[in-house]
């Protein structure tokens, strides 16, 4: 992969007592150069994560971004991302990377929700592509992807992971989200999630 290829990594940070989760997007080149940031927030326990990530990508307005990475699929206490609609909206491949083994979210969703809130989350969760185990730099990550073949998704994750197991766009986005969340906690403000 060419060193100038860019990916938008999106990660979150939230405090258990907060009503909103901070999302940060970081544009990072394959050669580890960060050259853009965008911030927003979604509702803890809500259903607006997908539209918030779309709004972040729209607000960033970077045609040079080739891939969108997201850390996991259930930010902000099961505010599930819908990867296929996200891919359609941002018009580029979407990769969800998680870092721990898991038996899945269904039992946790059943414990946390009921009625329509449960059913809508189960529908979103069951529509996700399967997680695939991927070895990266002697570490294991789990990848869901939409918009590219499994083998290509593995190549993309490895290309953006020069060391360890966390792709650089997600590492930088996580640092930015934590810093922004700390600032929000001190300042008491929120990020505008509108386009």
TrEMBL record:
Domain of life: Archaea
Xref: Pfam families: Endo_dU (PF01949)
Protein family: Belongs to the UPF0215 family.
Full protein name: UPF0215 protein C450_03172
Organism: Halococcus salifodinae DSM 8989
